[in-house]
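Notebook, p. 212. Picked up where the previous page left off. The plan for this session was modest: take the two constructs that came back from the sequencing core last week, fold each one, and keep the raw output in the notebook itself so nobody has to go hunting through shared drives later. Recording the first one now, exactly as returned: residue sequence, then the structure token string.
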Amino acid sequence: MAEVTNDLIYEVLKSMQHDLGSVKADIRDVKGELQAIRTHITGLGQDIANIYQIVDRHDARLGRIETRLGLLEPAH
């Protein structure tokens, strides 16, 4: 069985430190990508809210047009 020496432990620790540095860099990249996704989702939510406002305005206009043409009973 191989004898465990300080040099062997040192080499293993250096390798682990390098791997840990790579993992940290990868996590940093993933965090950046996640933040970009969050920003896009927030933008999509705002776009959807704007679409709902536009549809609501069109619905109100259509209701007035239908009332003016006599297609609906006026609200009391």
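Okay, moving on. Second construct, recorded in the same format:
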Amino acid sequence: MNIIDTHCDALFKLQWNVRSQYDKKPSLDYQNAEELDTNVRRLQQGDVKVQFYAIFIPPEVPENEKWQHALEQVDLFYREVIGKNPNIVHIRSWKDLETLQEEEIGAVITLEGADPIGNDIVKLRHLFRLGVLSFGLTWNHANLCADGAEEPRGAGLTVWGKEVVKENNRHQVLTDVSHLSVRGFWDVIELADYPFASHSNARTVCDHPRNLYDDQIRALIEKNGTIHVVFYPPFINEGKETAEIADLLRHIDHICSLGGEKHIGFGSDFDGISSRVRRLEHAGQYENLINELLKYYPEETVKGFCYQNFMDCRPHIR
């Protein structure tokens, strides 16, 4: 079955490798480097039809260098991901998803945390021109847009953050709630035309700040957003670095129980996680997840989880 995966950190891993060249480390080959969970070979093995690639800037990067880091990751996307792989096609508009050929893989650029743009609307619009189609306002901490999920203050969106959401609406860009504070989440639900969670699980099943409460899940469903379950064990099993596929299915079951059967997808967080679900350790192992799902859900429902739910809920060009 074709897969849409709405979150990976391959661009950050590629950039980290390039910036470590003083250690004489060889460059990572996106075609088949074993260090990359989402290399081309593994995407093909796992039938990943569309992969979202996040721009992520670690908090320790100085403020005056964050924009440069973001541009470096976009450059690596153009040079290493699509530039050297003719079968990987840059998705610049949601309509492009409809024209992918059988042998092609779609690639979507996203932003995980608005730190690189500061409060500069020109930088925001430049990211749209470069092809960013999903915008996460924060990572785990606070920035000029909002507080993140692990910021103790727990504030919502700032005036600037609200303007960013409005710009997302104008450009039919998704507003990603996965790393937001609870108050920030509700501000987005009020303002965003296209809210979604790129990589979050159910907080009722695993009480972690990065997961979503039941009322948040219901709110996303009501706004026709999708919730993409994440494969990081601490977000699956509270306080644990290990998980089985069956543990991940508990989150899917719970979201379904809230009316979310048509709103579930996958957001692996491959290349950005330090521990993995057993037998679901890289993109090439998606078949193991699909086979488990087919034991409990009809094939059409599983196809929805894999691909169709996102296709049905995504922004449609007016």
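Notes on construct two before I forget. Strands lie at 3-5, 48-56, 88-90, 105-112, 132-136, 174-176, 195-196, 227-229, 264-266.
Flagging for discussion at group meeting.
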